[in-house]
Amino acid sequence: MGPPRPFTVVLVLALAGPAAAGCHHEDTATARASAAAPVAQVPLTGPGFPPDAATARARLAALKVERGRNWQTYEREKFGRYWSDATDAVGGRNGCDTRDDVLRRDLTELRVGDRNRCVVLSGVLLDPYTGKRLPYTHRRASQIQTDHVVALGAAWRAGAYAWTPQRRLEYANDLDVLLAVDKQTNQDKGSRTADKWRPLRRAFWCEYARRYTGIKAEYGLSVTEPEKRALQEMLALCPQ
Description:
globular
């Protein structure tokens, strides 16, 4: 993924990914109860992410436009089977798994473990896609899952099919690619691209397009013509 990005946001306090190509993980991962190494002070958001609207528009204009390829060869396992901290992506190598990092970043009213501060014991998600207020309690069924904003299947069709396994693992665990969201909404989204799916909450369209375009640009992924038009429409809603 190139040279490490400079630190911008530091959290020392820690979402939910697979189904279909949209890649969501159930909130049933077992958190470690025993003492763990101290949480490393690494940023949970990349510098300058998401890009502002003007930057996103410029990056969108520079993206390669082509039809998706190799859709028939996609397999979720080609992005790694589980969350991994062993990458140089945003949030990597801090001693916490990716899911816990997203929860720590995206939940409010956060309470983490005393012995293992990676583990989120409770919190509340204000879902960006629907506006729902979703409570979270460790070891209880949750309505929160992890969404890859540009889904793994969509990334595959846009160029990830040609990546090395390590680069795909980094993409799958890059915190800038991920959001904690409503479970059912994430399942409904699946692997759809921006021309086929938009957040139910219209107020989030601008930020969604900024994030989506920023991810495509960071990883050199292509867009289709309909996808590009949809992103342009959503970016047009951003404050001038």
